[in-house]
Predict the structure.
Amino acid sequence: MKGILQAGHGPTAGERPTLKTIAYMTGLGVTTVSRALKDAPDISHDTKERVRLVATQIGYHPNRAGVRLRTGKTNVISLILNIDEELMGLTSHIVYGISEILATTNYHLIVTPYSREKDPIEPVRYILDTGSADGVILSSTEPNDARVKLLVERNLPFATHGRTNMGIAHPYHDFDNETYAYEAVKRLTEIGRRRLAILEPLPKYTFHQHMHSGFLRGLQDFGARAIPFSHVSLHDPLNRIHEAALKLMAENPDLDGIICGSSAGAVAISSAIEASGRHLGRDIDMISKQPADLLRYMQPEIMTVSEDIRLAGRELAKAVLARIDGVPAERLQSISLPDGRLVYPT
């Protein structure tokens, strides 16, 4: 009896579930269980489903240290996220999108936040020095982004939420902010608005260049005039945006249109418009990007354009996984257009 029990490798209370636990409970070999969890093509669909069901029921998770020793891989993707993304309401959407793709793989997502005051290259250096991830997703890209250069030099697969101007081919997904701002000017001028302000990103980010360029082209093409919205950006706290908007209203009684780069900023501005005694949709109109359909319920007078951040997360996850598999960077670039279409520049 003793020998039979030892051969069975049955689960013991309090032990961490392992591949041997799943093998014991399914009657399969450890190798078969391992290959089923890796979605091996020579394992039947029914067997895979049985193994995954048992793994879920017992709370099995791969031992990352063991995986790393055997394969040299961590099965981790690190999302290095600027906390300004949370101020703009983007964090949960991009995490959901990435997780939707990783859920079908052996990879796990770890979010590594950093603040505007910190050097954004520090978390990248940490990952490179510790080997703590197989791939990286970066947010808030800059035109000459030192993180991109370092990751290319160290040959760690990555993808960026946003583009760069460095002449380095790398995987990315971006929203066409230039077209967004240009079309927003057009839309406002078509309803008679001519004196326009825009709440933009900080100038250090690449998408500021895109949004600002589209705004200026729109002003020129559609005969509108810019009203400076100074000393504030869409990355600032909402109370600061609100205060800056109050000042903007007081100093520019002829202002009749606003373009906003974030839905959170749009809410702060609309509150300032009301506090100034003016009315959205009558005295002044506003267009804003939004990652989810919330402004329709909160401020239906605001005209909106959807930026699908969840889609961005999915595109970024697919790009970094493909890069890990050796797909050329030039084939892993995509842009979302304001009309919802997804295009691939190359």
Remarks:
- The CA atoms of residues 249 and 276 lie 7 Å apart.
